[in-house]
Amino acid sequence: MSQEELKRILVNADSQFYLIPAKNPLDTYKVLWFRTSSDVRVKVDLLQPGIMSIPNFSSSEIDYKSTQVTTYSSTRARIPVAPFGLVLLLKLQAWEQHRDSSEYRFQQKQHVDSRDIDVLLPLAASSNAKFDSLPEEFLQEARRRVISYTRTFPSSDEGWKRLGFKTFKVQVAPRSSIPRTITSVNSPATRVYGRTSSSLTGEDELSRLLDRMQVSSATRPVTRDYDWYD
Description:
about 230 residues; alpha+beta; 3 domains; 7 helices; globular
């Protein structure tokens, strides 16, 4: 059964579901939306393994949500919902794909994706979302994407760590590695050493020291940051 057929089944079963045309007039598919009882509109994505890099996962991981519709057997209709951890990682995948797209309209979607992740990530962390049932190949790609995502959005670092992912970190060069420079300031050669305080990095302290001595920026030493994974 195709996704379009599934969409029509949902629309026919519950009037809270409805379809709207795709933004691109050349696309033949329709976008599925759901209107809540408080008149909030929610876009619905139907997940089928094998489409858009969606992995296979155990049917035991599917959560069934009851709707307001009563079936012919006088029971509440239930809608299968993907595991929360998978939804989060698929949104992360979408963020990367939209970011790397060559088309402007898709590139703009990365901002929507990041806002969605801002909402999904703390929910996943607080509910202790699991990823054990997902294929290892899919998880390897997710780990790589998390490092890339936290490099762009470092404020999300703690949430990903709570879920067991390694994140991107920038490490400032240790104090002992701050280079020494010898320069002249209207006097015989003077050695200048960078020292750090408890509230400043070595590079900041050294820069301020050289500023006070009115040393040309061309003579200032440069320290490098090193990328590492925490």
